[in-house]
Amino acid sequence: MPLIVMCGYPCSGKTQRAEELKVCFERNTDRKVHIIGDGALGVEKNTVYADSQKEKNVRASLKAEVERKVNRDDVVIFDSLNYIKGYRYELFCLIKHVQTPHCLVYCLTSDEVSSTWNTSRDAAEQYTQDIFDALVLRFEAPDSRNRWDSPLFTILKDDALPYEDISDALFKRKAPPPNQSTQSQPLSSANFLHELDKITQDVLLAIFNSQKTSVAGDLITVPGATEKIELTRSINMAELRKLRRQFISYAKMHPTENTGHISNMFVQYLNKSLH
Predict the structure, then answer these.
(1) How many helices (DSSP H) and strands (DSSP E) are in the chain?
(2) Burial class (CB in 10 A: 0-12, 13-18, 19+), 20
(3) How far apart are CA 110 and CA 150, in angstroms?
(4) Is the pLDDT confidence value at 160 over 90?
(5) Residues 247-252: what's their mean pLDDT?
(6) How far is 268 from 263, CA to CA, in rounded Å?
(7) DSSP helix, strand, coil percent of the chain (3-state; round to 5)
(8) pTM of the shown model
(9) Which H helix or E strand runs over 183?
């Protein structure tokens, strides 16, 4: 079952595009189409995305549901944020193992447009502003140069749905061949990338939020670290993101088997870089 992975900011039109795709495939083929997403699990988004462990559990449940549905005949549309590149890599390894094609549909909007769409929803369907801002901050945009993000279809809010191109990518392209890692080994590298992305992002958010009530000279506690950030000056998010990218590049070349060390390693890196 070919897999379509939806991706984008909260309230960027992913579900609408997923429904459009479902209608097109059902109208033009005899294949069954399954949409898998947060709604099917009854996810309370503001509760889940405020708790990293709950979010991790939901991602695992969604991935398991995708794995149950995927075969070589019908179409699975995975309608969720899918904002972590390490998680998208895990999905890519899954389809390699099943030997079925996939593609990524990226609903590209500005955070201002998505925020407006969020506030226009019924109150019960809205993300809180804090959760919305945090998800936008964590979002890792797909890159077609990465094999797990390719083929990539980027759709703006006023674009027509490129159904024919998506269909060709799924049904006229060979599935990626399985390799030894997808056949017999756990996704340790993907898990490391996921934890690296998640932990460093949590540290950034902790620093960003703590600065609202801190002054120069304060020590900032961050999740999972015994060491503290020595705040000698105000640090803007652009500088924090740059330092995070540099640390991630370093960590990929020097991976640790114990992901519990990542927080302290990142804190040490930040303290050294900021002084």
Answers:
(1) 11, 7
(2) middle
(3) 22
(4) yes
(5) 82
(6) 9
(7) 55, 10, 35
(8) 0.65
(9) helix 180-184
Long-range (24+ apart) CB contacts under 8 A made by 161-164 are: 161/17, 161/20, 161/21, 161/24, 163/20, 163/21, 163/24, 163/28
- Calculate the CA 210 to chain-centre distance: 24
Q: What is the mean pLDDT of the chain?
A: 87
Q: What's the gap between Cα 214 and its chain centre? A: 30
Q: Is pLDDT of 183 > 60?
A: no
Q: Which residues in the chain belong to E strands, given as ranges?
A: 3-8, 33-37, 75-79, 102-108, 152-156, 219-220, 229-230
- Region 222-233: mean pLDDT is 85
* pLDDT for res 9: 95
Q: What pLDDT shows up at residue 225?
A: 87
Which residue in 202, 103, 104, 138 sits closest to 10, CA to CA? 138
* CA 237/CA 157 separation, integer angstroms: 27
pLDDT at 185: 35
Average pLDDT of the residues in 121-133: 94
Local structure of 165: helix, strand or coil? helix
> Based on the number of CB atoms within 10 Å of its own CB, is 272 exposed (0-12), middle (13-18) or buried (19 or more)?
exposed
- Residue 166: the pLDDT is 95
Task: Look at phi and psi of residue 47 and say left if phi exceeds 0, alpha if psi is from -120 to 50, else beta.
Answer: alpha
Instruction: Give the three-class secondary structure for 239.
Output: helix
Contact 204, 107 (CB under 8 A): no
